[in-house]
């Protein structure tokens, strides 16, 4: 399966709709003591198409959360360009950005920390409505807010009685439903969800993954779904981007990337996921740990752990290139899968 | 069980743990029984709040909360651990029974090197010189797959990666060659590629160190890949126990079946929706008198509701489930997996 380099294929993807969000050469660095720099996001270019679910996967420290936040400017990118719905938002001042924020919302991993424990659920849902105006420019009336609160609870499968209660009265799964409801309050077009089901038990996790899928069907939402769990990402995503040390090493249609991984890292990652099938073949795990993003290896960022690394990989950094329909990879020697 | 079978290393019978809260006793673990033989890896699975960690802590005699009530019997190599004095327990812990935890950062003191701490563990239980202890420490770290073990021994915990810290903790746990290793979510905090390395290591322990392992986890994938036998807890009670291959291929309890079905698959077709289990496990005080899973079970009927909860019944070779269906002759159908959340 690991073969010689595959010749570059011409861009085969049809000129589809314009991306809802487009990032070009996005970087996010953090200055550390002693003049060192941490490259959390290291030159990522990515398009998020309307109506898709783009899964961002990778191990801890790969920059997937920082990328997710930077895309909607919850973390200020150090350089690069972000275009949302045709408008360059990279340097928009917060005041000008605010009306656009309605259209991009976020759901976090820790369902408890993201809800003020001293406010009732109804209050928490009303807050974004009080801060922002309706799409037409007029304010939300209290009657409209009340109607919206009930509608939101219905959407996420909680009764309107929940509006009178406090966050601690709910389980983790229910709190995540509330967080989703709040993110939906302003009818956003894009939701960035950062590990939204990682803290939940499996049986509850399935409920929330289904909820995300249903809401997308009903409301035509676009998601950037950040998660370390490949099985969850596979379930929800139309496309998957695999990150390693701040960069995308492979991106493409979910089935292509996860079933015919071209990058040796993607392959190792998919094989490392324990399957609930006893006696299944276990491949040799990848050696070593992820290097520090403070001093990332020269050449290909993966070469220190790569089972097929050559001398070239130690010096020359591979660029992301298209190797098949809907599949791009940053590797000098990508896997070639016979059909 | 045939009478000539060797006595189990660990024989837990009807272990119950209750905590006192606001004048009431809260039954966290109810009448749990299982055995663990030499060289065996037993997976104890359950969701959060199922009582799996409390079970492990009770085995180790690590629960000393005021008002706690522990009943039942825990025979380890023929010695009764329930009610054993702290002095005697301390002698067992570390030398005959060792435990590793999810977070290796909290298991080490940040102010001493990792090697010094492992040396201490050896010195506390055996009459060896510090030099001999350090030699053993370095061998152990090397066995755990730590590159450059001598240098790692001189490192402080914060200088090591999560995977290396977990290896060091396993090295410390194995330093006195325990007969039983209790591992509570040992890979949950690790990335999958590192998890694969640690699971590999755990599987090899029985051959290299002869230790039996009680592996506590919420991850059915980890159990399938690592454990000989599986023991499923639900809301503080035993739901199912048996050989891992049988439990996964022919789950006898609707909870096990539904839990397996709700895991998003890594291979094969993707279901349009995941067969989720509706609702939540009950809190200990709201636990039904009958089957604890009945409120979420698509098979629930009148027989499931009255006390006492269903006892374990045989559903296969060494395979038991606490469910009324096997006695009624009702097989589990795939429909149990088709249930969905409201």
TrEMBL record, chain B:
<protein>
    <submittedName>
        <fullName>ABC transporter ATP-binding protein</fullName>
    </submittedName>
</protein>
<keyword id="KW-0067">ATP-binding</keyword>
<feature type="domain" description="ABC transporter">
    <location>
        <begin position="12"/>
        <end position="260"/>
    </location>
</feature>
<dbReference type="InterPro" id="IPR027417">
    <property type="entry name" value="P-loop_NTPase"/>
</dbReference>
<keyword id="KW-0472">Membrane</keyword>
<dbReference type="GO" id="GO:0055085">
    <property type="term" value="P:transmembrane transport"/>
</dbReference>
<dbReference type="InterPro" id="IPR050388">
    <property type="entry name" value="ABC_Ni/Peptide_Import"/>
</dbReference>
<dbReference type="GO" id="GO:0005886">
    <property type="term" value="C:plasma membrane"/>
</dbReference>
<dbReference type="Pfam" id="PF08352">
    <property type="entry name" value="oligo_HPY"/>
</dbReference>
<dbReference type="InterPro" id="IPR003593">
    <property type="entry name" value="AAA+_ATPase"/>
</dbReference>
<dbReference type="GO" id="GO:0005524">
    <property type="term" value="F:ATP binding"/>
</dbReference>
<dbReference type="InterPro" id="IPR017871">
    <property type="entry name" value="ABC_transporter-like_CS"/>
</dbReference>
<dbReference type="Pfam" id="PF00005">
    <property type="entry name" value="ABC_tran"/>
</dbReference>
<dbReference type="GO" id="GO:0016887">
    <property type="term" value="F:ATP hydrolysis activity"/>
</dbReference>
<dbReference type="InterPro" id="IPR013563">
    <property type="entry name" value="Oligopep_ABC_C"/>
</dbReference>
<dbReference type="GO" id="GO:0015833">
    <property type="term" value="P:peptide transport"/>
</dbReference>
<comment type="similarity">
    <text>Belongs to the ABC transporter superfamily.</text>
</comment>
<keyword id="KW-0547">Nucleotide-binding</keyword>
<keyword id="KW-0813">Transport</keyword>
<dbReference type="InterPro" id="IPR003439">
    <property type="entry name" value="ABC_transporter-like_ATP-bd"/>
</dbReference>
<keyword id="KW-1003">Cell membrane</keyword>
